[in-house]
Design a protein that fits this description.
By secondary structure, the protein is α+β, with helices and mostly antiparallel strands. It has three domains: 2-111, Gcn5-related N-acetyltransferase (GNAT) (Aminopeptidase), CATH 3.40.630.30; 135-293, Aminopeptidase, CATH 3.40.630; 303-395, SCP2 sterol-binding domain (Nonspecific Lipid-transfer Protein, Chain A, 2-Layer Sandwich), CATH 3.30.1050.10. 22% of the residues lie in helices and 32% in strands. The chain has helices spanning 11-21, 94-108, 174-185, 196-201, 248-259, 278-281, 304-310, 358-364, 371-376, 387-395, and strands spanning 2-5, 47-50, 56-69, 73-85, 113-117, 130-131, 134-141, 164-169, 214-219, 225-234, 237-245, 266-272, 288-295, 297-301, 317-325, 330-339, 342-347, 354-357, 381-382. It has a seven-stranded mixed sheet with strand order 1-2-3-4-5-14-6. Strands 8-9-10-11-12-7-13 form a seven-stranded mixed sheet, with helices on both faces. A five-stranded mixed sheet has the order 17-16-15-18-19.
Length: 407
């Protein structure tokens, strides 16, 4: 078996092999691939596993993204996608070979992070990926959706007040959505970029895909778009695909808009971060019914010192991390020292404070998974009292990391 990079001439074979691995059928893509999931695929970054007689039996791809780290640090990352093996060739080492080949390529590109969305939670941990962001669905019965009067002053004295909501059809506001999302993702830990070609080609899912949707665009007091909610109605259920806002005031205005929609008996807000304040904003605390909580973005560190010194930090401290990377056959001990928001990470022979697997370091990296939770779960070993609590304080982010992008 050979693992090789693809070219544009391999597109049909790549798509057909991946669909077959999923047990689905695929039509041959059109000349431009417009409006379908593979429209933005980067064929020079994809891999095919091919048998000795030339038959493709496995696929793995990657997109070129930017990821926002704690501290509003934006770094390049690869978004691993379209990973599949034909049913006839599973459990024969094909997936392992592709993942090993891909990680070597990513390192060869000088990258220190890789991310993916896991179709099954049990697959990617053994390759060093850990769940780093989470998302949930909120369902609100509209007759219970009255907002409570705020118990604190919403705006600082002298600050401009007011915002407005304007309604568009999806086909008429693509550039607005692109600009608002880009502004949002640069300040949101865990958010991925949506490259221009995704919007231009209609790749992926709503709202990058041009599927018919109503879009409520929020404008700040100065008239600049700073948020949106993409939604559709099915019977008496209004479903919000995605809500984006650069601040809480804009998100609240958009929530008021969708929760006040006539003829809707219930409103479903998809892809809402954990600890969202909406239930606290309503008169009836129980009106908001959380559900569908799941992991979303999985993170893999390829260069631990570079990764740890790239993100922002919000507590001073010092930890010795003993990190095992069994998939790549590596084991290193690092002294992490944080002062004034910056980190230094150097090799050390000191006794460790925490011993952990590379997948666990990926899980805590963005601040969405508490190290102490992994200690309690038996994944991470704390060698001294207080080490887990210090790790919690060090690895926290300025806000809950969240990723909306599907790829």
């Amino acid at each position: 078996m050979e693992i090789r990079s693809t070219t544009d001439q391999d597109l049909d074979a790549f798509v057909a092999t991946f669909h077959t691995a999923l047990g689905r059928f695929s039509d041959a893509p059109g000349a431009d691939g417009g409006g379908v999931w593979w429209a933005a695929t980067e064929m020079d970054r994809n891999l095919l596993a091919v048998t000795a007689d030339g038959r493709p039996v496995g696929t793995a791809g990657a997109y070129t993204f930017e990821l926002t780290l704690p501290g509003q640090v934006v770094v390049p990352t690869s978004g691993v996608t379209a990973v599949g093996v034909l049913p006839t060739h599973r459990r024969q080492g094909v997936l392992t070979a592709m993942m090993r080949h891909q990680l070597a390529e990513l390192r060869g590109r000088g990258e220190f992070l890789s991310v993916l969305l896991a179709s099954e939670a049990g697959i990617y941990g053994r390759f060093g990926y850990g769940p780093a962001t989470y998302t949930q669905r909120l369902t609100v019965q509209r007759h219970q959706a009255a907002f409570a009067a705020p118990r604190a002053v919403r705006l600082a004295a002298g600050a401009p007040a007011g915002g407005s909501v304007e309604l568009f059809k999806r086909a008429d506001c693509g550039r607005i959505l692109e600009e608002v999302y880009d502004r949002y993702r640069r300040a949101q830990p865990g958010a991925l970029s949506r490259p221009r070609r995704w919007w231009e080609l209609g790749a992926g899912q709503v709202p990058t895909a041009p599927t018919a949707r109503h879009v409520a665009v929020h404008r700040g007091a100065d008239g600049t778009p700073d948020g949106y909610a993409s939604y559709s109605m099915d019977g008496d259920t209004l479903t919000v695909d995605e809500t984006i806002a650069v601040d809480d005031a804009g998100y609240t205005d958009l929530a008021r808009f969708v929760l006040g929609h006539d003829l809707a008996a219930q409103v479903v807000l998809k892809h809402v971060p954990a600890e969202h304040p909406l239930r606290w904003q309503l008169e009836d605390f129980r009106a908001v019914q959380p559900g569908g909580e799941t992991d979303w973005l999985w993170v893999r560190l390829l260069d631990v010192p570079r990764a740890l010194t790239s993100r922002g930090w919000f507590t001073d401290g010092e930890l010795v991390l003993d990190v095992d990377d069994p998939f790549l056959g590596e084991h290193h001990r690092h002294l992490l020292t944080v002062r004034d928001g910056k980190a230094e990470c150097v090799p050390t022979d000191r006794e460790p404070d925490l011993s952990l697997d590379i997948r666990d370091l990926g899980a805590v990296y963005l601040g969405g998974t508490a190290p102490s939770a992994l200690v309690r779960a038996g994944h991470v070993l704390a060698h001294r009292p207080g080490a887990a609590a210090l790790a919690d304080a060090l690895f926290r982010a300025e806000r809950t990391p969240h990723c909306l992008h599907w790829f």
